[in-house]
Amino acid sequence: MGKLSSYIRPYGGYIVLTMAIKLLAAVMELFVPYLMEIILDDVVPAGGRNLVFVYGGLMLLCAGGCLLLNIVANRMSAISSGKITLAIRHDLFDRLSRLSARQMDQLTVSSAESRLTSDTYNINQLLARIQRLGVRAPILLLGGIVMMLGMDPALATVLVVMLPAIALIVYFVTKASVPLYTTEQGVLDKVVRVLQENITGIRVIKALSKTDYEKGRFNQVNQELTNIDQKAGIISGITNPGASLILNLGLTAVVVAGAYRVNAGSCQSGVIVAFLQYFVMILNAMLGVTRIFVIWSKGEASARRVADVLATPADLTVLPAAEVENSGEEQPVPHVEFRNVTFSYTGVGENIGHLSIRLMRGESLGILGATGSGKSTILNLLMRFYDPDQGQVLIDGRDVRTIPPEELRPKFGVVFQNDFVAEGTIADNIRFFRPLADEALTRAAEDAQALEFIQNKSGQMNAPVAVRGNNLSGGQKQRLLIARALAGAPEILVLDDASSALDYRTDAQLRRALRTNYRDVTTILVAQRISSIRHCNHILVLSDGQVIGSGTHQELMESCGEYRMIAQTQMGEEKEGA
Ligand code: ATP
Ligand code: MG
Asked: Is the pLDDT confidence value at 103 over 90?
């Protein structure tokens, strides 16, 4: 919790006040049995009717005041803990959304989700309950003991046996159950992950009839969570009956010993009644202390998980231009350049090896290669989602590591592989929260070959788009995404497998529109079809992260066997399609 203290500090005064009110309420509660003892032993035997009312009134005042103060304080604790959690959740969300791709790979999305939800909830519980129980339980426990010692020290010796017994139970239960709660949070991560994979992959799971398999997988993690929960529950379940047993034995001892003492005249009967009440109070306080331990350890584990994310150092920081030596400045400077770039996601093997590319402004690059050969990785490096392990990625001769993100990102118009269409209207999806004029949207839609189908929809640009674009066909979705990429008037256009669902004719029209209307835009196309990239100025053929062919279509047809083979298998199709 210490790591999050900066969030708690602003509410320090408020929390102290809450706890002070809680303290006052607990003290008032302590006096109720004491007042009763006075009425029973002193006031009633003396026969003073008025005094009965006075002490009765005092009792009522203490009980009522205690209730009222508790309500006020509990409300205050809910307010402060709610506000603190709000701030933590806000910052956590902010930090999560600025984690680099590599940091997110490490953290995993499901863990990010449970940190943002259940962990912050545990912190909230900790903050609220500590303010409430944290003062009340110890005060009632200690105060109860003091009161009993004050009334009849001899009778209070029962406590000497009872308290250590309860303390032992509490100690062992806490010790056994606390580690379980830490494990539980990790298992919860797993449940979320399986659930998430299931929801995202629902179609393919159904299509491959993997529903039963997935059910089994979910049942497994679900069972794991249940087992831990059950174990923790069974262990903490010992506390209450165990403590009750000891309490009842204690009560019996008080009544028996008290009876002898009253008979002998060394103690008054009111003391016995008050003792019984203090016993119950002390027992509840003991259990309250146990609960504090549990809440504390749960909250502490969660606080650590949240603080870890908050403390993640900024990755992909913008380096000062001078720090990156820019060897051999040449003229003219290429628009986009990869200079001997080597990169690995995990540090094992190479996902990109010694890649060098030079693209002048307005030139186009086509990237071809089997799945997993590193095509998308090149784009990730260019847009600086990851930094290369060796070499440099440069735009206009500047290392991308020296360009601030707010300058870097707008340079790109991009369609990611499997990019997503959001719920809203067609215009919303093309605009995507950027301050773009309506004409820009229309022009982009036209160039993306999307205008025709948009105009056929009722509502046209304002036609609704369902969640994940479910009311659009695959090709319509792709054209909408291309329109989004074009609308921002990018310097560099990046299309990762963005026209795979288009028929050959539309694909050709798209390429023609790009060539004529986006002359100055440097374009990088990733495609499976030779026809999509054959007109590019440069073509790279990748295999396992290595360049196995580089040049124009003609050059590659002569020099690269792999390319020639792909071309020959596809040419037949293309003729049929054209
Ligand atoms: P496809 O045609 O299927 O899209 P690709 O050529 O775009 O394939 P990449 O996505 O660049 O392939 O992946 C290249 C390699 O890097 C693959 O072996 C893949 O398993 C690995 N890889 C991709 N993303 C990550 C990641 N976030 N963490 C670890 N490895 C990754
Ligand atoms: Mg890819």
From this structure: no
